[in-house]
Amino acid sequence: MDAAVDASTSQFELNEEQRAIQEMAQAFAADRVAPNALDWDRNKHFPADVIRETGPLGLGGIYISDDVGGSALGRLDAVLIFEALSHADPAFSSFISIHNMVASMIDRFGNDEQRQRFLPKLASMEWLASYCLTEPGSGSDAAALKTRAVKSGGDYVLNGTKQFISGAGDSDVYAVMVRTGADGPKGISTIVVPRDAPGLSFGANEHKMGWHMQSTRQVIFEDCKVPAENLLSGEGAGFGIAMAGLDGGRLNIAACSLGGAQSALDKALAYTAERKAFGSKINQFQALQFRLADMETELQAARIFLYAAASKLDRKAPDAGKWSAMAKRFVTDTGFNVANDALQLLGGYGYLHDYGIEKLVRDLRVHQILEGTNEIMRVIIARALIGRQ
Length: 389
Hints:
- The chain contains 13 helices and 10 strands.
- It folds into 3 domains: 4-123, Butyryl-Coa Dehydrogenase, subunit A, domain 1; 129-236, Beta Barrel (Butyryl-CoA Dehydrogenase, subunit A, domain 2), CATH 2.40.110; 242-388, Butyryl-CoA Dehydrogenase, subunit A, domain 3, CATH 1.20.140.10.
- A hairpin with a 2-residue loop joins strand 2 and strand 3.
- The longest helix has 30 residues, at 286-315.
- By secondary structure, the chain is α+β, with helices and mostly antiparallel strands.
């Protein structure tokens, strides 16, 4: 990763352990992810084997408790990890983030039996996990979800469909938001569904603009039977559980944008130092220098903003939710714009798959949509401001 990444962390004085975490993630990304990322993208290959290799490094349970095999790290630690992994492949890093969000939900809201049953295998990456909230008819309006779970003896019977689920068909465990009560958020519950549950099936892999490495399918429940003991924290708690994971998820996806954009800038710097036009290297032209200067400035501002938001979440600051929304909006917008500018600097070569930048542009675009669209982030920020008056 570019040395400039380290310079901006000085305000936060990363300790020795955090620097070791950052270097570990960078080394793994450079060795096991970066050399394969373009092939995974080209072939739409889900690299479950390489994903599982992150388990022994502690990346399957980054911020879950150590009594169940987790690393018990903080949110700033997680941001450092996802930024480093994304420098090699934002799609790979984003799946690790989703997996960790599910593990964190079970750690925080599960009972002792559930934690012992699920978390050691999730932390080790023996089991992979997916998060199932969005439906064909409910995206930003998550409380309008229709998938229903009805208690029948010792089971819940699920019927409905989840949409745009990363890892669907490849993951072993699905944290599913379902309706067990009346309309609205108070009627929503969370049930952990194993892949082998009877009545569970998956749609075709979606043809997406980016994130080709990740499988994205519908998750379909047709009289799907799940033991009642897989219900997290009681009926009616599901909406709160789903929302509780989103602040951290938003910071993670922002970190994925940051790492991907840094990679794009690094590629642009290398290219413009070699490419010649009109008798000079093109990085000697002032207009191009101004573009590079703006890209660097915007990325460093985004990095400091993100680290500050993560620090607030670690401290449980009362305005951490607002800061998470602001960071998600600002960093993902900035990351996409920097990657898009990098593509422009490479001209026709930037449009070619082998140079890697067009993949970054495609991958980073979805970060402005998931974990709450950037329009919804503005709603959250505005409500926090208005409510303060």
